[in-house]
Amino acid sequence: MKKTISLGVVFMMVGCQTVSRQRAADPVELRQQAQDAMRQGEYFKARKLTEQVLRQSPQEEEASKLMASILEREIAQQKEAFEERPFEKSQAESEEEIKTLLERSREMFRAKQYEEAMVTAEKVFAYDAENRQASELVDEIRKQVFAEGKQNEVFLKGMYRDEARERIVRYRKKAGQLMDSGQWGAAKLTVEKILLLAPGDKDATRQYEQIKQREALNS
After folding, report:
1. DSSP-assigned letters across all residues of 128-151
2. Where are the domains of the chain?
3. How many CB atoms lie within 10 A of CB 216?
4. 198 — phi, psi (to 5°)?
5. pTM score, whole prediction
6. What distance in Å separates the CA atoms of residue 18 and residue 3, rounded to the nearest whole number?
7. Most Cβ neighbours (<10 Å): which of 7, 20, 155, 165?
8. Whole-angstrom Cα distance, residue 193 to residue 122?
């Protein structure tokens, strides 16, 4: 009889623990905890909680947007911490910032915030001009935007029009410099960015053809 009671107590305890774990793992509660942590400036904790939600529900839009917001604040926090000594960044610090930028860009991409995802991915090139992950991510965003037929809606919408024009001028100058120095791979990536923002740009199309011809000669 005593053994039966003891086993019953054990099963009840295990059951309670299981219920507690299930409650703790509830996506809604986890997301709320993450939001609370973010408001308190505990960005690492907020990110880890949101990762748990996304592991359970990878397509959840609210969690993806929350993750993007957390990563954005982490970036701002890092920027503020490093602004006072911009020339003293170690390789480890740069790699950590690149990782955060890539994470945020992917989250924005998953949330279908394509322009923001593109801008964030491009920031990686300030630390590593030949970063393969960033280049592949930019290509992936570009393909998705065109697949959905949203290139004009996404990249040239209201608040981004002036910025897009400025970026085209900057990219055009950079592409010319890269071509002059024989850096054809980087030049091609830069010209593709122009064509992403302005698909009918004649100068960029001409540059792109020149680069393709050069690549054919070198292959």
Report:
1. -TT-HHHHHHHHHHHHHHHHTT-H
2. 24-82, 94-155, 156-219
3. 8
4. -140, 80
5. 0.41
6. 22
7. 155
8. 10
Burial of 121 from C-beta contacts in 10 A (0-12 / 13-18 / 19+): buried
Give the pLDDT of the chain (219 residues) as one tens digit per residue: 444 444 444 444 545 444 444 444 788 898 899 888 888 777 778 888 888 888 888 778 888 888 888 877 766 655 554 444 344 456 777 788 889 989 999 998 998 888 888 888 878 877 777 788 988 888 888 888 888 888 766 655 544 555 667 788 888 899 999 999 988 888 888 888 888 777 667 888 898 999 988 888 876
- What is the Cα 99 distance to its own chain's centre? 9
Residue type, 201: D
| Half-sphere exposure (Cβ direction) of 162: Cα atoms closer than 13 Å | 1
Look up tokens 């973010």; give the residue.
Answer: 38
